[in-house]
Amino acid sequence: MTFAAIKSIGCREMHVASLRSSFLSNFQNKSSPYCSAPFNHQKQPQDNLHGEKNEETKMNGGPFICSPARVQKLIASQSDPLLAKEIFDLASRQPNFRHSYPTYHTLILKLGRSHHFSLMEALLSSIKCHNYPVSSSLFSRIIQIYGDSKLPEKALKTFYTILEFNVKPSTKHLNCILEILVANNSFLRNAFDLFRSAHKYGVHPNTVSYNILMRAFCLNGKLSVAYTLFNQMFKRDVVPDVESYRILMQGLCRKGQVNRAVDLLEDMLNKGFVPDTLSYTTLLNSLCRKKKLKEAYKLLCRMKVKGCNPDIVHYNTVILGYCKAGRAGDACKVLEDMPSKGCLPNLMSYQNIVGGLCSQGMYDEAKRYIEVMMSKKLYPHFSIVHMLVKGFCRIGRDDNACEVLIELLRGGNIPHADTWAEIVPRICESDDAEATGNVLKQVLKVEIRPDSKIVDVGAELAEYLTKHIKIRSRAR
């Protein structure tokens, strides 16, 4: 044990000793406003020696017990859970004193949240021994404490502890424990067993219970079990919700069974459910990955008719799908249609388009979209600019590359060092000195901040400028 730990324990013991002295004094103080029984302040006759003795006994032996409510407040206000427990124990040792249930409730949670689980469990046993009526909310809190502490076994044990207190576990208790158990793959079987046996204890799983297990089995690749649970819901008069369908759709898409997922969507629509935006996002992503772009676009168009307005995520998913499939022209059509459908393109929309156009060598169209972006104060990522500049340089159109660079600088954005490295050597190696000089003038006209770091990659530019100065000096 370290010196610091010993010192900490010593300080606590001193604090406890001081607390005990003060606390007992408060218990035995006849003028204390917190005593449960009043003290008679009238003078006793001098000849009533027996009465004086009785009063002295009361003061030293003490039926003058501090009220349970006062003890509960003292415990609740104590930040150190061990000192709170000491207060509890001091009060317990007073004659004829009985703690209130709120005191137990407060202290149990205080000890549990500070991970003093053995002390917490001892208090629970004490409650049972003293036949206190226990609220179901206490067990809800205890289950959550164990869950937050990553103790699934203790959370599961709490379900059976509830039964020992003659308290009927609720579906809420069941669902909380299931969530804790499925978070750990090794407890998935325990969760399933509890789910199947819950009805024996009068607890009936609801839609949330089924969804918790369905999601867990889908994430663990056990899609058949999830489907079985889904079908059981109808047999047991448990109504699935939008999330139930979405969980299965996501599971099918992870398995690459996108056609079955689309069929499930149709079944969902036929039964009167309105899919949420995440359900559509899942399907659109999966269709695009499978290069089923016609189906993806058709689904995008149907969304609004079916009661779910497509948002920017849905449009960007389809745009990116077209671009990755080498169909940037179709992606442009989707983007141009967006405003009329009530959704404006964002930075990601334009970046996907520019990247897709560059990948297909359509640099002029890409440059046009860069200009549109800049006009809307949407500044592209340096990688997108670099792709376009590099593309122009590759086909010998350095002037267009410089135009892109100049436009970027005017907007107050700094090209990446790789972009400078791509364009500066080409400018400086140009045979057309006049044209090169004009391009440089245009570039250097723009205010270049120090963090543009042109000097890091511009050795050729420095050499060019040096030669240019020497020529001008000779001419003079």
UniProtKB/TrEMBL annotation:
Keyword annotations for this protein, in alphabetical order, are: Repeat
The question of whether Repeat is a record keyword is answered with: yes
The entry sums up its family as follows: Belongs to the PPR family. P subfamily.
One Pfam family named in its UniProt record: PPR_2
Record InterPro entries: PPR-containing_protein, PPR_rpt, TPR-like_helical_dom_sf
Q: Where are the PPR repeats?
A: 206-240, 241-275, 276-310, 311-345, 346-380
- The lineage's top-level taxon is Eukaryota
Record field: compositional bias (Polar residues)? 36-47
List the protein's name: Pentatricopeptide repeat-containing protein
Instruction: Report the source organism.
Output: Castilleja foliolosa
PANTHER family for this protein: MEMBRANE-ASSOCIATED SALT-INDUCIBLE PROTEIN-LIKE, OS04G0684500 PROTEIN
Provide the residue span(s) of the region labelled Disordered.
36-57
What NCBIfam families would the database entry show? PPR (TIGR00756)
